[in-house]
Amino acid sequence: MPTPVFRLGAVVALAALAAAGCSSEAGLPGEPKSGTIAPAYGDTLIEASIGNVSSLIPNITSDASSREVGDFMYNGLVTLGRDLEILPELATSWTFSKDCLTLDFQLHQGVKWHDGAPFTADDVVFTWEATMHPKTPSAYKADFDAVERVEALGPHAVRVTYKRPHARALLSWAMTMLPRHLLDPYVKAGKIREAPQNWSAPVGTGPYRFKEMKSGEKIVVVANQDYFKGRPHISRIVYRIIPSQATIFLELKARGVDVASLTALQYKRQTEYPAFEKAYQKFRYPSSGYTYFGFNLKDPRFADRRVRLAFAHAINKQELLDGVVMGLGREATGPFRPGHWANNSAVKGIPYDPPRAATLLAEAGWRTRNADGLLVKDGKPFTFELMTNQGNDERRKIAEIIQASLRELGVGVEIRILEWAAFLKEHIKKRPVRYDAVILGWATAADPDQYVIWHSSQVGPDELNHISYINPEADALLEAGRTTCHQADRVTFYHRLHQVLADDQPVVFLYWRDALPAIASRIHGIEPGPAGIRWNFQGWFVPKHLHRYTAG
Amino acid sequence: MRGLWQAFAKNRLAVIGGLVVAALAVLAVLAPVLAPWDPHRPDVRKILEPPSARHLLGTDQLGRDVLSRMLYGARVSLAVGFVSVGIAAAIGIMLGSMAGYNGGFVDATVMRLVDLMLVFPRFFLLLAVLAFLSPSIWTIMVVIGLTGWMGVTRLVRAEFLSLKEREFVLWSQSVGATGFRVIWRHILPNAMAPVLVAMTLGIPAAILTESGLSFLGLGVQPPFATWGNILNEGKDTIEIAWWLSVYPGVAILVTVLSYNLMGEGIRDALDPRLRRGAGRFVARGR
Amino acid sequence: MLAYALRRLLLAMPLLLGITFVSFAVIHLAPGDPVELQTGDMSMQQSAQAYQELRKLYGLDQPLHVQYWNWLTRIVRLDFGRSFAPDGRPVLNKIAERLPITLMLNLVEMIIILVLAVPIGILSATRQYSLFDKVTTVFVFVGFATPDFWLALLLMILFGVQLDWLPVSGLRSLNWEYLSFWGRQWDFLSHLALPILVATFGGLAGFSRYMRQSMLEAIRQDYIQSARAKGLAERVVIGKHALRNAMLPIVTVLGLSLPGLIGGSVIVESIFAIPGMGQLMVQSVFQRDYPVIMGNLVIVSVLTLLANLAADLSYGLVDPRIRLAGRRGRR
Asked: How many CA atoms lie within 13 A of B171 on its CB side?
């Protein structure tokens, strides 16, 4: 039963936050919207994940499951709110210096690690040191590349000094904070993976604390009674590993899991019956990933902009959406998510126009057809190999639809599906790249900086501009966008970049998929928004009369 | 020959199996003629339609006619079965006869090679080769063949070991026939019987392996259809599109059943005509 | 016999070495790179520095034969090394936590198959071409022909969702810790019922047909005719004489399938969310987790070679013809 002390604690914390004058405002997590139902403590939430959790220190891993579990147990200095705005978490406020080179944080007081030790500015310094340590295998070092030093100005104040203005600076501090008192010796010895923190005893400051893990089976976390923002309502979360999408769906129906991501087909055709709608709530919002049809721009055929535009005209994007995700998505006009501030809504998509496509190809020299119906230039028919990775049904279907569309145009496409590790190593990361065209996707972050993808300096081996896109105007915009911390300027730069990329079509931008989670209807407090639904999971609750599991 | 046929015909089940196999082969060959729709062309307006007059077996997730895909898929599935088993048998016969006839060092080497291949996890071998070569109908056939010759090798070798000592071999050797001739004209024909049976039983195994590979995403490339990959695509929509699971599932079942019945019938028919020597290792793992 | 066994053991050593060397080479030469997958998996935060550091940590910056030598010298000390996965745990730990469940599943499956296949095989052989024979033939082949994942999903839908008699997936229920001892056993059983059913149904064919074939041949032997001519009861003829001879190859086959006990079916494990060896192997292959792959391979190879030797020896021991024939009859 929730004791009055906890409720009071939450109120006091809220008041303290308000009083501290944070330099941003938004709804605070923990405030359920449903007015008439009183939030209650208790019950268990069961989640399902296809991927295995590989580590309990999110800083040294990059797979989604580990990050999700990490979100339960750790905090960052800042976090994302519903509309993708930056909210304070372990920090109460922050200020940038005028030249954007210094960032000062004020930290919460009285925050404790799960083992009772106090969280201080020193831990922030340690987290940076640990991530950047040469022997720490972290994929996030690039995030802190521009940091010159991090120093504690007191037990609850941190100053970060940057070598150059870095637009992503603030957001990079959403990185999970690690405890110095437990990990210091391991990091110094270069053996962070061997720390018990990594596998058996993770200690964070987050709303849930680690209870147990059975490898490959499940991870159980329980509510942190001393959480600085107030105890989360749901007492226990069980994170189950189920490696088959078909099985997860069946478990959802058998009520063995409470939360699952639905595929488009499941959302539209398999969950429309009354019993399901009663037991589950479905949500739909644009996800942060888009799929694209990319070209090897060093191939002279694709270096010609008219060819790329012709392909864009030859593909019916609506048909693609209908066929692949049952219409549950929206056309992509550029690399920024619809609804995001960097997205330029004035940019129009390339319309479906096969005659125009044929004209463009003719202008590019592809005029005559041979006996097979393929376009010919200089005696050679227009055929190429389209590659994508195995294990992704959507990409496979996209490839098949594009193959059919381009065949009508007179272009022959051969599909090649490769196992991911081999694909990455042998075809994408090598220079010169070993592909003609690919179907791939990008997961965009909350910060729109995409320098590493489009800038001409990023074409080296292992770098991400594998299509070899070179455009000086785009370069300038990318550089400008990432080196200023003034929002209004960034908006201008990125809107212009959006237009440039749409005109140039270095890749054919296909679509943004919708995220389609289904959650048991007894869970209240969910508010979908551009950031998804997880941004306030700490505030989810189950009303007393609907509790299904007694908290252990 | 006549005796063989009579022995075979006594086994009702085997005859039924044989007829079904023949019928499937005919259907597969005639697929381009029989298929009412283009099996490769997506049509997003007709996604997952149940069986109807226009689409006898319904449509799949990209709106393609399932009947047409299954007819063309029969070609691929049966081809995979035949070619991979053919490759495995060819390698097996070659190695087995070398080992059985020559004995000694050659025999020991071949048997150690067999041991090596048996120990190596098949899935990893498949993955490695497919990663090198990238999956296509041909590479899958080759790979299944290359990983399945061990049983035939042992069979052939065992036959050789027992037949080597028999009179007609000794006689032809005394007359001066060379090793190769002895193998080819005298020993092999007698050893062929169990090999034939193993081949017949290997075809359904190859078909099932291909469907397992589809499950893992390593099967035949799109847009080509095989029964295995239609089944695999259908597994996510079992409840709303039962036709995607039932028809290819039944087809695989009937085919595998028929081959097995037929193969066993052949073996039973051949049995009294041959004295089986040492070694009856019809390795037939899943 | 002893000399034979010793010689085989000695011969097995270079074979084992050869197996490990070939495996090592194939695994490392296959395209793909574990470091690539961890530090640069097309995420926007990758860094070249992390890549180099990790390569050094894994020893991948050394030439292949040096890596092999390092690995070999550690293995003979029974040090299987640490996994490349971010959890960095010792390979033996990872295998040890998955092995029991796989072993148990396989053992139960094998026992059930034996218990069912032997009588089916015997009866089918003695009543060849009867209705019983035909029905069981079709039945076992249907089991063989049904793809695992298909059957699994159908059963899950029927028993797990619609009838709600059995859990859909996983190893235990959420409240497992709070159950009584018998409650726990029952819980385990209900979770494993469907996977075992699927595995057994598919595996029945191989063994029962083999048993049938073996029995058929045993019955046709001359000494059976003479036993009958002697006037012995049919039951004794079959049960005592034919059966004993028919069982010989079964023993061999059983022995040869022992190493397979530690391998799991990745399809069944994925569908039923069972954390077994099959999934471990497949995941490590996809992630290029070389230490785990090699560790597993070594264990399987050793077991296989030992089982081969044991099967050969037992066959020689049990079958007097082989024993007395000396070297000539050896496999």
From this structure: 5
